[in-house]
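Hey everyone, long-time lurker, first post.

I ran two proteins through the pipeline my lab uses and got sequence/structure pairs for each. Pasting them in order. The first:
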Amino acid sequence: IDIYDTFNYDSTEEALEILQYPNVSLCDVVIIMKFHPKHEKICEIGLGVLWNLAYEALNNIDREIIANQGGIECILSAMSFFPHSVTMQEYGCGALQNLALSTTNKRAISNAGGISKIIRSMKLHHADCDLQDSACVALQNLSMDNEMNKKIIADEDGISAIIAATNLDGDEDVMRSACLALTVLISNNAEIVKIVSKNGGISSTIRSMVCNPCDDQVQLAGCHSLRCIAVDSDLTKTVICSAGGISAILSALLNHPKQCEIQKEAINLLHLLTTITSNTQMLKSSFIHFDICGLLLNAVENFPSECANNVRDILKRFKKSSSAADVYSIDEKFGPDVDKKKLKY
């Protein structure tokens, strides 16, 4: 006899019992949650099951099956009815972050108001690290290759919510997720670059890099974000340097000497920043703490096609404003005619 043959969906007790079966079906979870949309315990357990199902989905077809059978509707309904339940909001954001890996689901979640519910959760529970982590990843996945969702996130004040998440003391996972989310949002979107700059995104990105020095994804994302911001104006270039950006960039070069993408992004960023003379002076002051010539030489030797031309330009600018001792250090490593030739290794 099938365990569901005599199942009464109206019964709270039976609904709770079925939800806790190891192999409860997606169909029954959705039906139960629709029968009991305001029952906190049922919705909490149901959301947990949906999160697990979304996490275990092997591909986008499986994720879209969850959506097509009413999973997204149930998730957002529970988040709406129980906004002050941290557990419910975390489960909801966790489920949405996995479902949003599907392009079709990105649109469905957005059209159903899911983005605003995620951002509301972040603002209501701004001190909960697990929720902030899930929410940042959800917004990152929703905005990946989707300009409309980026606009909605910006319009719903999601940028400031993500930036606020980077300020949670001591939680590197949240800072990492927030940094990666900002990188996706900034990419190829000049309007969001301005919003990020205006809302403290420069200092939060640098802080994420400083607090996660060995995380290659954070370093790559941080350098990429700062480069996108630096392109915006000379003012943003100066702000990046004043906020400790040069030290963060040099640390990225130092800690990830064999990572081509990090070396390339960091060198590209230094190349942009040193178009401002005062920024070149700040770079020069870092000689005390970093072997700058050694870092630049490593980039050229390991990745010549990606880094050599920009390193040459950086050194030309650097020599113009350096002391004799610093010029000697440059010449010793690169040769006295570095400003007149193409670096080749």
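...and the second, right after it:
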Amino acid sequence: VATVGREGGVKLWRIATSSDKPKTANPSIKLKTQPTKDKPQLIARGHVFKDECISAIQYDSVGSLWVASFEKQCVYRIDSEELRPRLTCCVDNNEGKNGASPIICLAVENEINLLVAGTVKGSVEFFQAETGTLLATWHFQSKDGGNDAYPRSVAIVGSGESTNNDEEEWIVVCGMSDGSLYMRRLRINDETGEIHHPNEEELFFPEEATIDLNSSHQAQVVSLTPHPHPKGRILVSGAHDGTLRVWDCFPEIGSSKKKLRPRCLYGFSGYKVWLGSVCIDDKGERLLSDGSDNTIIVHDFSSAEVDIDDKSNLEQ
């Protein structure tokens, strides 16, 4: 478990097991009682980046923790078995008058070796996850044509199965500070299974520009959560105005059409104050969200009679 607070830095924890004794020789392990299944406890593993403003963290599929430093404008990786951060990449500041570009959100996808970082200067930077090589930069403008909107959340979503092109497809979705949602499709190298590089023209499909999803969110889109179901496709967007939207990112699957824009399946509104984050459980049956009202709301789809091999509960 990793936590970030206003005091700065990243605190790392692990869940105590029955083998951890309250009276141990290790001074870093402080347990009040013997941990049990009904009474789990957290054991502190370490505190890194002390007194530093951390703007985003994310675990990847192999258990590595990715950390974005707001002040240093860099992304670090912490492997699961060690506490030593490793510098992966930094946002280039050689943009003259635009000044610094602090990172405010990130997403990682090991399967295609991709790291995506959104900055407060209104750009999304694409890096190779393993090497930190910059692949491309995606710039945005606000709905009214200005340049004051910036990415507040990003997500990498896969189709989870072969599409009409007999290949798994991937898109990047960006939630903006003005409530809008945008996406671009990625091109995959058939030989390596990774995204095309190093030319930006090879990273995106040239015939498709940025697609506005018309999200209907009226505040910052602070959370983008891909569905954990093996078939993928589903994305949940959440905004500060307390609205949630459930999206089918690849509606062309199962149809005769080649490409279709992501489709909003349904949404929720009016139940949450100043929504903060959204999570989907491992089975894809429960949608959890929190906010400034100090409550966690669970939308439970587990009783839905759905064939999981056909559709996920959230999709239904």
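Reply from user beta_strand_b:
Welcome! Quick read of the second one: Residues 94-98 have pLDDT under 50 and may be disordered. The chain has one helix and 22 strands.
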